[in-house]
Structure formats: structure tokens, C-alpha cells
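INPUT
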Amino acid sequence: MSTATHADHHDHGHPTGFMRWLTTTNHKDIGTMYLVFSLVMFFVGGAMALVIRAELFQPGLQFVDPGFFNQMTTMHALIMIFGAVMPAFVGLANWMVPLQIGAPDMALPRLNNWSFWILPFAFSLLLLTLFLPGGAPASGWTMYPPLVLQTGNAFPFLIFSIHLMGLSSIMGAINIIVTIMNMRAPGMGLLKMPLFTWSWLITAYLLILVMPVLAGAVTMLLTDKYFGTAFFTAAGGGDPVMFQHIFWFFGHPEVYIMILPAFGIISEIIPTFARKPLFGYSAMVYATASIAFLSFIVWAHHMFTVGMPLAGQLFFMFTTMLIAVPTGVKVFNWVATMWRGAMTFETPMLFALAFVFLFTIGGFSGLMLAIVPADLQYHDSYFVVAHFHYVLVPGAVFAIMAAVYYWLPKWTGNMYDEKMGKIHFWLSAISVNLTFFPMHFVGLAGMPRRIPDYATQFAEFNAIATVGAFLFGFSQLMFAWNIYRCAKGGKKATAEVWEGSHGLEWTVPSPAPHHTFDTPPVVK
Amino acid sequence: MDHSERYYVPHGSYWPIVGAVGLFLMMLGVSAWLNGSSLAGWVAWIGIAVVLVMIVGWFATVIDESEAGMYNAQVDRSFRMGMTWFIISEVMFFAAFFGALFYARQLAIPWLGGEGNNFFTHLLLYPGYEAAWPTGGPEAWGGDFRIMGAGGLPAINTAILLTSGVTITIAHHAIKEGNRALTSWGLFATIVLGVVFLFLQAYEYVHAYQDLNLRLTSGIYGSTFFMLTGFHGMHVTLGVIMLIVIWIRVLKGHFTPRQHFGFEGVAWYWHFVDVVWLGLYIFVYWL
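OUTPUT
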């Protein structure tokens, strides 16, 4: 190696046009592809959510038949989780982790390309099922047997698309860990890393440990359906509840996979706009690690109602409530960072602030659900839907939007339209509450989830939620338009972009050149 | 970290997109085949062929680059870390199936037999069923069957795999000392032991199906037995292929006492396969 000169390993005469994107090993190109893919999936999954909300606008059956309604709830969840939120975070990691740690690229750039390009094919397999006889999977994204085993032609497509998504996630996670552990610039000690990078390091460990478990679980479903195994059939000595245990052993860390990078983003944005260093940096790191550890020993709180020994219920209840401690540390530190800061409220900061408020609401309803006797009432009600949408939409999705507004000038070299950004924020913040807050009430009053019809006493709140959902959905067109406009031109951004920004990513010009940190920067 | 050298970033490659298309065709074909489509087999085989071409082509590129001396110490570290985490993800895949085995044996079966607070479940669902292991379940799926005892073939297989762990370690020490002949013989012995293991596993499967009436469809016992040993067998097969590639590379004169990650990655993988087998031998065959 040492004999080769610098020019040998760059500038091979890049392919242009479409070929550039197919063969690229550049972390910025791949990050962009992940983010664009995620945005497309966000609209596809969002359209499905609007089908659901349109049907629920009034009691009775209006637009779709119950079978198709169930297909929509299933596909909406799968697409939003695996197609929108996770790829968005991986895209952000691709773009920002090398820039934050002073690396020239990801550690395994070709693997990185493969991780991305598997995704469009995986989702083609999944979306294809909409056009098969019997339609798309309709069992809910959790795929509980025996119901899921009744899926028609869509079944193997569902299983294999999940295998492919898992493959992509595992390879992406390996890449991120190796990049962070091996490619840091000299002087960039672990406890000097920006929190977004830290949160992704921990998230990547979670991914590697749980995605293979999901692959195993869906493989067992496949053999149960087609090859006569008895994993989930009591008659053959198996147990349908066993699927739920295996699934949620994956599923609970999975929900943290979707929120830990968001924590990292918020921990970047708030110090910038409060113009103060993050309060309690190492406490944040340890809190993130604690949450990740706890995520492995709380899974059965998703299934209190299926029956388990009392000791099991108590164990999972207490471990779940324990998560509130490190999460509380994080919320406290965000607030303490803002305390007496010189705050300004640009769009990323607005989204970050909304995250702190609204994610916390979702966290609190999670605490309510952790209590076994209460959960027996809330289970499978709209209260649960309200809970996880509060942590996922104004939680994960708002954090992604905050990150996009925050780093967009670094990516494109142009400032986005601040006024339109603010309008987008307020429309989103208001409509998201309009959509999901009433769900708490109807849930507590007994409205079940995943049912296309409901008792008339729930009509008003459902109508409000539907109006909110359409408002939210169409507001996002403004987001896409703002990104497009920003990519095309606009006010030139400086290298620092934000007055209070600090970190290696702000030392490179805006837009970040195709190759950055070809020689390692020195971090003091 | 040694930062005296510049970073290495590889140039673009067509192999990832070829691999993605291959995987897509393969999954599409198998899905359609499971749905009973007649043309599906072709699509699946084309997909598998494309994936195989991708694997060969991609590795060939990497081996060529490695032999051209393009990889520095940092790249070597990246490969090592990547392989380590890949093996950990494989461990977790097996963990799912071991988890199913433990759950079925320790919880599901006793509960079906009425243990704990499941008296009524037992009474209403399967009043005649007595919890036992091995079992085909309350409805005795697949009928009566006998199981592979821990002695005999599985014990021989355990000895074979453990010995192969020794032979590959001998090869490893030899490669570090620059003793190419011993490296090659150690690898050859490991490959032979691996192939013998696979042959005996296949023989065991035939024996199970023909003489013991132990099948994949023999309830939860058959499910866990064949899925665990089957996935292990697939990994051994993969390991043997990897060993053969490394053996050929050794014969061609690749690797130096200092630079031989390709060898070590495969050796780690082989040890992983070995350890999984020990788990299988203890929990599936023995206990």
C-alpha cells in the first residue's frame, strides 16, 4: 500500500449519470440515496395512513373493505419502520458519521453500496404483494401466528422482503461500527465523539444483535407454513406465544433503533441553537448505553395479555419502568442545555424543541402501558396507537426532519427557505397533535386498533384525527418542495452554517466536497 | 492507530448492484415457486446463478487488490472488525433457534402438560397429553419416532469437528511461521474432516428419515432438530467452500506471515461453526 500514491485511489474517472449511483462507493452519494429513498417511502407509507384515516373519518364502512384496511395497517407499518425511518437514519449516518469523526468515507464502501441497493429491491418485493391475488399481507406488521399463516400468495414475499431488509440493516450496522471504531481521526477519542455518532454506534450494536433474530423468527414462520414444522402450533408441541417472545426480543430493541439516533440528533441541535455546550455529555453517552442494555430485557411488556407467569409480568414491568431513568436523564440534560442559553429558533431548533415536548408525552404514555394491571385495559386499544405514534412521529420523524434542516445547507451548499421551513414546522406540530392526541381518549374509552369500524361515541375524535392526518400528510409536500428548492439553489451557506455550530463537519466547506478528509484532520 | 499512511478508499464497483439484482431474482423466484408458479424455478435459479457470479467476482476483485498490495493496515483492521461482527450476527441467528428449543422444552411443553397455572388449558385442550421430551406434540405430529442418541454418529461427528479445529490451528501457526507446506496440509486435513462431517450428517439424515421416522414434520422435536442441525450443516458447507478457496490461495502462494486476514477470517468462521456444533451436541443430541 505504502508505495501507491494518493492519486491512485481516487478519481478513477467516475461514471456519470445513473451509473454513478449504481456503482458509487462514496458515503455522501450513498447517504443521499438512502435519504431520497426514505422520503419516497415516507410518502408511500403516508398515503396508506391516509387511506386508513379516510376510512375512520366516520363510523361504518365507507371506502375500503375490512381486508384491504388490514392490508393498509400492515403495509403502512412495515414501510414506515423499515422503509422510511430506518433508512433515513442510516442515510444520515452515512452522510454525517465520516464527517463528524474526520474519516474520508465509510470503512467498507462497497458493502455500503450493497446495503443500500438491496433496499429498493426488498420494497419492490413487498409492494408487489398489493397486486397479487389475495392482496398484501394483512396480519399486522408483528406477523403473529396463526393469523399470519393465513396470508395468501403474499406470504413468501413478505418473509423474503424482511430477510432482505435485515441483510441490508446488518451490513449497514457492521459498516457503521467498523467506521467508528477504526476510522476516527487522530485525537478523536471515544468520549470526544459527537453524540450523533455515539448514538449510532450503540444503535448499530442493537441492529447486529436483533436483526438476525427477526430473520430466524420469520424463517420459522416460513417453514411452519410450507414445510410442516411445528414451531408455533400447539398441536405439534410448539407455541404461538413463542413467536411473540422471539419477535419482541427483536421488536423492543428495534423501537430503540428508531429512537436512539434521534436522541443523538437532538443532542447535536439543541447545543447549537442554545449556543452552549451540551449539558452532561458523558451522562448522555451512558444513558444511551443504559437504554440500549435495558432494551434487551423488557420485551414481554408488549404481550402482558397473552399470559405469562406472575414473576415474568413483574420482572418485565419493573425493567420497563427502569427505562424512564436514563430517558429522564436525557430529557433533563436537553432542558439544562437550554437553561440560560442564547437561544434562537430556526427550523431545526423548532423541530428539536417539539421533539423534547412530544417525545416526552409518548414516553409517559409508555410508562402507563408498562404497568401490568393498567396494560390489560389499554392493550390493543387506540391508546397504544397514540403512544407509539407520539414516539415515532413527533419523536423519530421530527428528529429526522430537524436533522435534514440542520445539515441540508452542509449537503447542498444552500440555505433552505427558512420561512417555509417554519410554516412546515407549525403545520406539522399542530396537525400531529390533532391527529394523535385524540387517539389517547378514544383508546382509553375502549376503541380497538386495526378495526375499520367503530362505535358511534368515538366519531368526533376520529373525525378530528382524520382532519389532522390529512393536514399533516399534505404539509409534508412543503418539506419535499423545500428540500428540492434548496438542492437547486438559494442563499449560499457558509462552512459553519449556524452561528453556534461546532464539530468537524462544520470545518469543511458547504457543500461538502465529494471527498473530504483525504488526509486525517488533527483533533485537539 | 497507524496514521502515517493515507486512507484507502476503493473505487466504485458493479458487484453490489449485481448482488442486489441476484438476490431479488432469487427471492422473487422462490416466492413464486412456493405459490406454485411454473416458471418460478427458472427465475430462482437465474437469481442464484447471478448471486454466485457476484460472490466469485467480488471476492476475485478483492483478492486481486489485496495481492496488488493496495490494502494498508487500516483496511486490514476494517476487514477483521467486519468479519467479527458478521460472525456475531450469525451467532444471534442461531440464538433465535436455540431460544425456540429452550422455550419449547422448558415452557411450552410443560405448560401443555398442565404445569404451573395451566391446569385448565391442559384439561380443555389436550387432557390426555403428558409432557415429555422428545415429543411430536399433543397430536403426535408425524407419528412415533425415535431420536438420534448422543453416542454413535453424533459423538464421532463431534470428534471430527473438534479435530478439525486443531488442524486449522496447526495451519494457523504454520502460516505465521511461514511454513507453507504445513499450512497447506493443515488446511487440507481440515477440509477433509469438514467433508467427512457433512457426509456423516447426510447419512444421519437419511437414517433419521428411513429408520427412525424422525422428520422435519415430527412436531416440535423434528422442527428444532432439523432446523438447528440443517442451518449448522449449511454453515459447515459454506465453511468448507471458504476453506477450499483459502487452500487454493495458499497453494498459489498468497499470504505472508504478517498479512493473511483471508485465512484468519475463514479460521474464525470455522471455529464459530465448531462452537455452534458443541452447543448442538449438548442441547440437541445429549441433554
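end of record. Residues 1-12 of chain A have pLDDT under 50 and may be disordered.
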